[in-house]
Amino acid sequence: MFDVPQACSGIEAHLGDRFVRPPAFYGMIMDRSTVARRLGVFCLSVFLCCVEAQAATPAQGWRIDEAQTSIGFTIDAVGFPTTHGHFAHYRGRLLIDFDRPAKSYTTFTVDAASVDVGSASFNDFVKSSVLLDVERFPTMSFASTQVEKVDAHTARVTGNLTLLGVTKPITLTVDVATDPAAKGRTVAFVAKGRIQRSDFGMMFGIPLIDDALEITVKTRALSDE
Amino acid sequence: MNKATTVWPLSLRIAHWLNAALVIGALGLGAFMVLAVHNAATRFELTQTHKSIGVSVLVLTVLRLCLRSVMRAPKPEPAARSLAMIAKAVHAGLYILLLLLPLSGWLMVTITPVRVPTVVFGLFELPYPLAPDIARFHLAHAAHIVLAVALTALVVLHVAAALVHAWVWRDRTLARMWLRAG
Q1: Which residues, in sequence order, are CB contacts of A174 under 8 Å at separation 6+?
Q2: pLDDT tens digits along B123-153
Q3: For residue A203, what is the nearest residue in chain B, using CA coordinates?
Q4: Closest in A122, A130, A205 to B41, CB measured
């Protein structure tokens, strides 16, 4: 049923952060990999928000809008159409401090085998040992190390990407958009970054298939209030 | 003349029409996927099918040549000497291209840095005997296109000649290759 221990660990870390933050801190948690786990987290989040409300903490509870969330990439090749792909299964956590952006933090763990590039046999090829090598490296992950505010709507997030077992720093530019109509109850994030896959030892097809690929992570958080 | 000796053996007739269907399919699919398909997944799928058809064209052509060497081909219908020589050249050209075009494709998929396994109709994997070499890959790619255009031209000529035999000269050239010939 629910993978409670895993879900709880996320909540606890998140709570720990929240208690040491000033009241203006908006904590966000995103945890996703299976419907059951998401449901479990959602229920726990609602429960914890109620507990916090009793403790008179003005922090908002947020949940991820799954319909507006995607972890995607595009890569170009010579004599072949641009390949667009995304990962269906992942777990992500996002703690946002609007007043002190540097205190914000995010991690994502992606199930490599959940890659979808549009057809079954193409998926199988991308999962094979020459590219994602999902048997040896079932997950890829990102953990932020630095968040800088660029302007009112943009942040620069630096962090460590682990791909094919190799960890290297990458930088993502994140557009942050609040929906005025929703009175601050939704925040949309679009994180984009370019990586050189050769940095991670993924040499297949270079130079016919580009070394550089574009990563785009889109997500939208909704306030429960 | 005895009718039986003027008709192609059934095995060669079947092989001819099967080869015709496969090679027209491979040529059409190859042109379509490269010129008209701009979706990566669809292009990938069609390329796998194209490679499978190409391998079957190669195997069938070798089989046809073996069969032809052991079976008696019917004598050509009477025609002017120059036309008979052109016909012979076109037929030789067709056989050569039916071998070279799939072989150039095999060379391409072997020496490309983007080495995608060729599993022929999901049955067996084509061996890739050479190492990737991008410069030679570009040459093989160019050769594959030139050979494809040349084969298309010869197929058009071959079909046109067959129709002229059947409808203008009204001889048995097409009839004796027809599946229900004789």
Answers
A1: A154, A155, A156, A157, A189, A190, A191, A192
A2: 999 999 999 999 999 999 999 999 999 999 9
A3: B113
A4: A122
More confident position, A50 or A176 = A176
> Which residues of chain A lie closer than 8 angstroms to B115, CB-CB?
130
Q: Establish, for the pair of chains A and B, how many residue pairs have beta carbons separated by less than 8 Å.
A: 48
- Cβ neighbours of B42 in A, within 8 Å: 118-119
With beta carbons under 8 A apart, name residues in chain B contacting A117: 40-41
Confidence of residue A146 (pLDDT cuts 50, 70, 90): very high
Predicted ipTM of the assembly: 0.88
Domain residue limits, chain A: 4-223
Mean pLDDT, residues A205-209 taken together:
95
Cα separation, A66 vs A41, whole angstroms: 13
A73-101: b (≥16 Cβ within 10 Å) or e: bebeeeebeebbbbbebbbbbbbbbeeeb
Identify the pLDDT of residue B3: 52
Contact call for A83 and B45, based on CB within 8 A: no
Q: Which two tokens stand for residue A104?
A: 């914000």
d(CA B49, CA A157): 43
Interface contact A118-B41, CB threshold 8 A = yes
CA-wise closest residue to A145 among A131, A153, A134, A157: A157
Predicted pLDDT at A67: 77
Give B28→chain A minimum CA distance, Å: 18
Q: Running DSSP on this structure, what letter comes out for residue A120?
A: H
CATH class of A4-223: mainly beta
Q: Check residue A223 and give its pLDDT.
A: 67
Task: Select from B114, B118, B137 the residue whose CB has the most chain A CBs within 10 Å, as the one to mutate to test that interface.
Answer: B114
